[in-house]
## 1
Amino acid sequence: MSYVQIEHLSKSFHGQHVLQQLDLAIEKGELVTLLGPSGCGKSTLLRILSGLTASDTGMIYIDGKNVTDVSPKNRQIGMVFQSYALFPNLTVSQNIAFGLEMNKISKTEIQLRVQEMIELVGLVGKEQAYPRELSGGQQQRVALARSLVTRPKVLLLDEPLSALDAQIRKNLQKQLRMIQRELNMTTVLVTHDQEEAMAVSDRIYIMNGGRIVQHGSPQEIYTQPRSEFVARFIGNYNVLTAEQLKRITPNLSLPAVERFAIRPETFREQPLAGEDICLTGNIAQVTMLGNITRYELNIGDIPVLVDTLHLSFEQEQIGTTKTLYVSPKDVIPLYDTIA
Amino acid sequence: MKRISLPSLSFALVMLYLFLPVAATILYSLATEWNSTVLPEGLTGKWFAELYADPRFLQAFGRSFLLSFLTTVVAVVIIVPAVFSIIVYAPRMERLVQILVMLTYAVPGVIMAVGLIRTYSGNGIPMVIITAGAYLVGLLPYLYQGTRNSLLAMQARSLMEAAELLGASHWQAFVRIIVPNIMSGIFVSSLLSFSILFGEFVLINILVGGRYETLQMYLYAKLSSSGHVASAITVTYFVLMAIITGLVVKFSRRSFTRKEVP
Amino acid sequence: MKRFVSMLWVTTIPFFAMIALFLLVPLLSMIGGSFQAEGGGGFTFSHYREIFSNPYYLQAFENSVLISFLSALIGIVVAVFAAYAITRFPHSLQQRILVITNLTSNFAGIPLAFAFIVLLGNSGLFVLLAKQLGIDFGQSFTLYSWSGLTLVYIYFQLPLAIMLLYPLYHAIQKQWMEAAELLGASPWKFWLRIGFPVLLPGIVGTFSILFANAMGAYASAYALTGSNYNLVPIRIGALVSGDIFARPELGSALAVLLGLTLTAALLVNEWLTRKIRRDLS
């Protein structure tokens, strides 16, 4: 049995199925991400795991114990909320100490552990500050320290970085991952940002419409999407029907599925091997994205997105023809048709 | 068994406490005889009939209505444009208005009455006019808050700038853009103002006394003579307040939903 | 160069004229009058000296402060719980309850006093009921006593307290409760450590408004027994409007002292709020 195990979990609100027969397993020390668009049920799943929301059916095991009916405060779970939920009338160290005081830890130990946490998250010098005197990133780190100081079995993070600027978010992602590794903390992160999920996770569960549609390592998810939904959600995949693909490359032998996905960055301007598929189309739109130039190409009546590294100084003009090559192994068959 | 929580218990007691006097008054206004029994001996509408046939009541009601209505209109005409131009053109002056609002809290009617009598009594100006003037000041907190909320909700400053860039004068922009937008908010504040003035007793009683009998003063006079008629007056007053409250709810909800659906 | 905005002048001149005529000038005249000898004489402290040496007026202040403090205290304690109970109802019901609460706040002054006469007056509903049950509290309680008046004051404090406290509960985020629960706090502990301290400045502020509200209240007490209650507003009213015993200068001095009390209450509130919530300043 895994460290955290969720079996056949279902939940409805007002007759609406939010989670449907969900199964999920997390190993000790792993950072697992629940990734999906808003309304896919990922936050509800997190709240059920924390015990703040009750499930309709299903079982939850943590560290071998059935906790399905255990109250939130006895589950030994730490949680960082999207709004951080810092107590405004308590200072940084009082916020962090709160959970320890509730669990009747001795004063000297509280002091020790709070100081340790403050050092770990890098808030030395801010001990006596109130939440509203801190920046968003600092507040986020207080919330993290507050949930870690009680040494929970599982740490839950509900979109913890979504309220922050891009630059701070990137730094905090790194710091979060570092702390998680250092403490070997079993962690579940909820996010709708696929880049964030890729950057920090050991494994990713992709959710849509209350179900898990695919799970695996970031590498697997990115290179082997199993459905159109995942392909579109994870990257800017081109999704083509079998019929469209046949028209472009009549000679290619394809598995018998309805749709195929091609990543925009797998197109090359020069062929690498003999079997590369050759495509020619008209440039309908050129967008400069900094280090990448994005072309919208019309191959016949089929629109295709192509990302190339922005190497040359001159852009190709709209209306000109462009020839590109793609390897057959980058044409990914999408086996799952649902969702 | 579920324990009754402290909040639920307090809530129930508060509601009972607030409701009982109202219910008792309504019952009393409909009771035939009610001197020695716990419940009235019979029900009748004769107290209301008697009340509504009394010209003194009708006059008092009319005076209250007229005084409250005219004062509210004048207060809106003076205060709303002033608050508007202070917020839009002289935001630093707003602090001064806030201090004045605080001052009106620290100076209740009975204190105002002393100052007004000293300043204005005996020099020929009818004291009703002076009372109305004091009412204008008394309405300042409500109209200031109402106007301010409406203006902030519609982002008056940028709308004025946009209108002026399109060639409108200050007055044109104010009348064509601001007024229609704050209308419902101001209407709600005006209804509240009206109901506050309609219930006012201290100033009018001390400054004017029996020379201008309002509904509240008529009620005071009836307290000692006929309890049943007095309760009929109270019920009438309460029904009028209920109607005004209903209008306030209706109109504030309307302006609320309009904000929600852009 | 600053643009000259004619609109600003046209609109604010009547406004400030109104403030001057009906607020500032009367106030200054009243303050001046309080230092004037009776019948238009010269400068004197005698009215203040009289108030501070006359047990009757000192008693009026003591009574006013006592009934205001007591009614504000009872009002706020009950309203803190009641307002919380309201926040737990479904949203549409909450709005309806608030409308009704607000409606009863119109029940003040003369109509309120009368309603209490119907309930608790000499032949009031509850008095009759008690008689039938064989209880005679005619000796220990009448509406026209201090305890009776306190009941009336509490009545007009309650709706105001609830209307002022109810919005404060929206500052308590649901996620704070959830975070506290996950950290092992019972609901009781949460309210003690987080909820109540967050509400406290608002509660103190509301208390001082209730106190000021009661200190200045005139109509209810006047309606119950005319000038018999020895309260500051009643004394002021009698001193300035009595035809035979009118002593407007002494009334002015009383009014100035009442105004100072109210100002002090509002200032103490502001000072306390800052002191309680170091995290706010």
## 2
Amino acid sequence: MKLLFNYLLFPGFLFSACVGLIAGWVDRKVTARIQWRKGPPWYQNFVDLMKLLGKETIIPQGASRMTFLLAPFLGLLSAVLVATILGVSLRMPLESFAGDVIVILYLLTMPAVSMILGGSSSRNPLASVGASREMKLVLGYELPFILSILAVIIRSGGSIQLGPILNQQINFGSNLASWPGALAFIAAIFCMQAKLGFVPFDVAEAEQEIMAGAVIEYSGLPLAVFRLTKAVLLYTIPLFLIALFWAGNLSWLALTGKYIAVLVIIILIKNTNPRLRIDQAMRFFWGPVTALAGISVILALFGL
Amino acid sequence: MSHKVIIPIGPYHPLQEEPEFFRLYTEGEKVVDIDIVIGYMHRGIEELAEHKHFDQVAFLVERICGICSSSHPYAFVLAVEDIMGGEQNVVPERALYIRTIVDELQRLHSHLLWLGLAGHFIGYNTVWMWAWKYREPILEVFEMICGNRNHYAMSKIGGVRRDIRDMDIPVLKKTMDDLVPAVDMFKGAVMDDPVIQARLKGIGVLTREQAIEWAVVGPTARASGVNIDIRRDDPYGVFDKIDWNVIVEKDGDVFAKTKVRILEMYESINIIRQCLSKMPKGEIDANIKDVPPGEGIGRVEAPRGECFHYVKSDGTNRPIRHKIRAPSYMNVASNKVAAVGGTISDAAITLAAVDPCYCCTERLIVLDKATDKKLMNGWDLIRLSQEKTKKMQEGRL
């Protein structure tokens, strides 16, 4: 019962979706102000979702029905599960289970996998281009992302459990305050931008090139689920990074402040860059970002 | 990999606000061939022009394009004045200056518009919004001196329709002064940004030979090192009396095209400033009554390149033949070489880099939601806009 409550209401689905949608509004509003526009009211993302729910779901001819319809849910379920694990661990570090960092890493890849599945099953050339781009992007950013997390794991004495990682930071200060932690955090920020599918790494959805790419054939409820997944991720991934790198103080107020700070970084990167080409994005992740994460791992090994 | 996939861009696509259809043959992300299909917007303007008076045709050709809406009527009146002995002999000098000013203001607003769209196409929406914000004062100036933001209706056979009043000149000068820092900012933000350079340099290259072979015009040609500009090669207006430079770049890629357009904005500002200080007093209209029989051509350097009009008159009040060639007609075809070989991402910006002409016209009605009653129709909106223009001209806004 308690697990179900955790998963569905707090800190799972309902809470993370609401926070994510509001964070999405902050993103839209700040973007609008940067661009000298007014921006939407705070409930815009909610009514957008409501509207999508009321729309007809169209399944393209010749698409594989089951995959097409189930793919978005796969992404949403995994994202919500991450939100639940994270939320519980942040409140009660002792309740985390062994290896949950690895589980989160896997689950965070699932939304991308669901995009790839959905795009490939929708039998549209633009969607397949989008899916192939997403695939390449995943290959690109997963390596530096795992490396930067490895630096954190090494610093907390090889623990792959959130509880000890958090406790270590509460007792000895945030990872961010150390050299390897700071470098790994920068690398992880870039990976987060790609995981969220924001400019400059929104190649899989590039509106002006392939018209929303993988999700081009989606409408109605499945599209709403994709949107919701994005919202949940916008809440989850920054929180995951905060838990790994910046968890010196875990009070509600501090968490909110840190979350907003990370959100601002995301929005700033998004609004001051053009979109990269997929090959440039790959080169960027496998070159400088992996090098940065690698250096942080080496520094962590030397115990700096 | 020999599996070819067709990626359609158009006829309806977020990239092209106008219906144009590009069929990209791709292998993976690489574009190996491209089919260009145009003709979705055929409106029969040449035929229409042959059924209208000379004075009406100037209004008609203005509607060919919402952005080059000074170039087309200007080229048309040049063609008609060519029948009567040339623009310089027919038109009063003050009118020549006014025509030049409007032509250059149009180039400014068009280049800013393109810069914004180019930013949008590479996913840089901040550049888009900022460029269009700085374009706004130019449209306001247009409304002040022509009464309209986009369709200026300034050129008429033998002169211009409206004078630039003395009280407008300080506002115009101030707008130009304010624009220089904005263009400086874009020059810095666009030309020094490493990510933008990574996206635009070496992309969609059109070599000098290819540019000549495909007969491209305007900034597209000048970015490939072809030194052509109608304003200098076949001067109209007062371009021969003014000190300005033709901007030429060698690289031929999208970055060079961007650079040419940004640098041309400085020249336009320079030209407008000189015109404002040199403009003589006097008549603005020669009051032409008849067009003699004969044939004439008019060439104008539109923001996108050479805009060509041919008019044949038999002495009646209608042209018996009117031929138009808009610059995009030449430039769009060059995508056949420029876009092939790049990726789909590159194709998007390459197709847009020639600045294909978008004409967007919109109608608007205001409805009362409860009663479904029309609160405002087209005429109300026209009245509203006229009232605002009047206020602006009286200096009350």
## 3
Amino acid sequence: MAVPILKQGNYLIASIQAALTDADLFELRNALVTQVGRFRSRGVVVDVTALDVMDSFAVRTLRDIAQMTRLRGAETVIVGIQPEVAFAMVQLGLTLEEVATALDLEEGLAYLVERSKRTGPEIGSHGG
Amino acid sequence: MDQMLTKPTISPMSAEATAAMLRELVAHLRQNRTRLREEWVQRIIEAQLLTAMSKEEIFAEATSVYDSYLDVLETGSVEALQAYARNLSERIIPRGVETHEVLGIVLLLRDVLARELFTRYGSDFGTLNNVLEAYEPAANRIATTVGVGFVQERERVIRQQQEAIRELSTPVLPVRERLLILPIIGVIDPMRARQLTEQLLRGVRTNRAKVAVMDITGVPAIDSTVANHLVQTVESARLLGATVIVTGLSPEIAQTLVTIGVDLGKMNTVGDLQGGIEEAERMLGYKVMPVREATQQG
């Protein structure tokens, strides 16, 4: 199942709706890394609220997405990790280090806005 | 020759004979109820058991126990005694009666009654043996029933208290918008650590918290399992987008953690709860100041 990627201003939002196969994850990674350049996005939010399990491949892919989009100029935030999932991930040693996380989509977007303010006003962005 | 060496064996009694023997025994013990009870109470007081109770109370309880005892000997059913033992335990445990005292008094009664049997049947060795054969298993069963009843009641009380403590033990308190505090008091065992993690993560979600201050001033010691669990909790909270600040690490805990080599690099620690809350407010962009200063500035 492909993950829909929505463009919202300077940001891309990928909302995962169901458990993904490794191929789906790979596709999501490609799509995000490509579209970040096409839309000149400053940030990416990946919403994993719907996932009640996260395996090591999924976590690694999320980390890869964060690092790859960073190389292309966009900060990635993972949002909506469920409490049980979070604790299970930590116990497996999958801690998503150096990847930003937030409670939900709203928080994630707020984080990105806050961050872009800190890194200086954007050209073409209204207000600041 | 062989027979001389072996003890004088008494042919095993039939169940009927045992029952008849017990009936006679019980009748005898009922007849001498007042005297034997008196003697028993005397011995309880001499042995300094049940010191938490007055002599009258001991006497009243002794009467009930004596009668239940005879009932069990007579009927062989311990159900009524079990119920009585539970009831008795409920009443005396809050008064600080110890396990050894309860066992002590039941065993004393057994001894008093056994002595009585010796006095009565001592002249006829064969009968005495038969009587004891019937009496001993019943008496032992009674002692076990009362002891087990007492211990079970104690355990029930302990379980109840543990439950109560557990419910009270990990409050998650919102102090400001998006700021939680978790004051932790008392020893953290693995069970409590798990519960704490659950409460914290759930609290972060329901309160949409950005920062949580975990204060462990009231925790006397931490072992490596619990320390690692705390680190995991902190990391899990980060995955939910919240920062955890740990405050109030005692000198002992700080030394233990470093000595056993727990990786605390990911933990945000501040000296005391006050400092922790100040740090959290700073992270959330709050600034707390006296009203006068604020009006001067504003």
## 4
Amino acid sequence: MSLLQEVWQAVKAIGTGMATVHKRVYEEAPTEFYPYVKPDLPPVSVQSLALVENEDGSERCIVCLQCERACPAQVITIERHRNPEGKGFLIDRFDIDLVNCMYCAACVEACPVSSIVTIQDFEMSTYDLRTLRADIDFLHEQARNSRQWYSPKFGVEIRTEDGRIEKAPPEMQPGGLAEILKPAEEVDS
Amino acid sequence: MELRLKQERLFDEDIYTVHPEDYRALCEKLKADGFDFPRAVSGIDTGYGLRVTLHLTRLHDRAKVTVRTDVRYENPVVASVTDLWPGVEWYEREAYDMLGVRFSGHPDLRRILLEDEWELHPLLKRYDTGGYPIPGWEPKAWPDPDPWTPPPPPEPEAGEAGEGGEAS
Amino acid sequence: MSTMNLEPVPGRTDEMIVNMGPQHPATHGVLRVVLGLEGERITRAVPHIGYLHRNHEKIEEARTYPMVIPYTDRMDYVSGTQNELPFVLAIEDMLGVEVPDRARKIRTMFFELFRLASHLVWMGTAMLDLGAISPFLYTFWDREIILGIVEKTAGARMLPNYYTFGGVRRDVHPDFFKEVADLLDHLERRMVDYEHLVLESPVVHARTIGVGVLSKERAIARGVSGPVLRASGVAYDVRKAFPYDAYPDVEFEIPTSPDGDTYARFWVRFQEMYQSIRILRQLLELTPKTGPFKGKAPARIKPPAGERYRAVENSRGELGVFVISDGTDKPYRVKHRGAAFSNLQIIPDLFIGAKFSDAIAILSSLDPVFGEIDR
């Protein structure tokens, strides 16, 4: 290859590269300026876990230990005792070690009453890992602070302005719409 | 010479269970039969001893074959097949690393994933997930020492605790 | 993993021993190769792996079958759901679970989406190794779109935990098919740019053509699979050889190249991306928009005692899993056959005799992912 050809090849390669760069400059990037613009996450996105209470403040969780058994990372610790008046169980302790949690949402999948849910709050960075060992108050607080959450049983649920919990409209629901929009089952029993 | 082996068919592959002394001879025969692509070597702790399972395939007609052989804990020596299929070199090192199977004739039998100075073989059933010996773990008695027979498949342990949800 | 270094050869004073990695950015993770260098030529090469070892196989013995699936995700972390499939297929075989046709097709669509995502990451990092920075930004841009589609359906971007025994965990998002169609249009436009930037670049030609030649016989004997094997002229693809899921329903070709050099491996991955786009286009037509997405699997997964080896063709080659069940709800033994693990064994063959700067190009053409190699 002669020198002239080599120079021409180099010029051509640089030209192609510059042309590509030029094209991209005017395209809208898929990234967001995160701290200033909060990302619009899909409702099924698994960012953190929360424990939802009923509208009247009573516990939705029936302490069946299904999530503890389903957890692959074994970070859920639950202790319970029998309800002295009435049936069922009461929670003594409900801890999730969010440091070791791998956010696979197997617990959400297993929950029969959609008490443990996934939420979109991902801003959990901290200087002290001990703050991420979530106890029941922490998990309730996360649910109170979030406006919508997702669980496979009930789909996306939203908290309205006056504090009621409702099923989100169909356009907010993810796939499997027909299944989710079935008439609501009794939760509070 | 007659090879001491048992042949069965599972799904779409032939499975040969072979005496450890004949393992090498069978592999040479399979290599001559045209099984050219090594898929994996797995070491398994059966509770009776250690088992080495070799998965092979033949690229042109896609025949699959599995060779397995069982050795005892006291003397876990299996002939290496690295010279027949150089692709099993790291898998044999891994089986040595994880279970302590010693492959005679392997060119470079060192630990591969763990440190050289590591003391135990973590995939042995006598250790728990944390690497501590499980108290009361005993190897099962080899079923029939002479004539040689392969040990039975793993059996479910009696009595599973903590079954069934109480979601009511 | 080993702290061992190469011993100097007595009487050889011109050989220098160089430790490449494990924190070197060009090693795609935590590979350490001890090199003996004579000038710029490599005379000896000993790879050491295991710096990312977590012993998945031991952990998985202590978990029930559904719990294993999220762990398999974390092996090859750039190709997401592809890792789940061999385990899921093996257990479905043992249980005899029927997978609905639509679920198979959805699984295959995700499988191919992740192949595109993984090859895009490869393209970016390989070009980064060769000294080009902008392709890295562009490929991650396109991968971002793919991961956005995955997140909308599966709930997570890289480690989705989406496949399950008998199908997939939840139905696809209503916008899924439209978004995939848009993505394919977008990628087809972008592929033209990538061809200009990568395959036709004189710099890439100079760095890769004739470098690291792997012969056909050596590739087969070493158990190399995937694009590395096909670049050496062997048309072995698990998708065709042992078809699974929806691959019998779609038409595609297996691109092979007779050259076996680094450029051939680049070229084969490019052609695979075109084939992935072609498969996805067909599946967009074939997949019913509504229907079942999960078959009837038992509530408690307890396969009968037995064993099964299943393999799939992931972005790097044959990813296999060997499961032994003892009839309980926990696997007795899970053995993973990593595609990149097998491919990495070829390092001494390719490195010895090459120049040091070529070693970087060869390594990037093998596309190792250390989550899977070290497991």
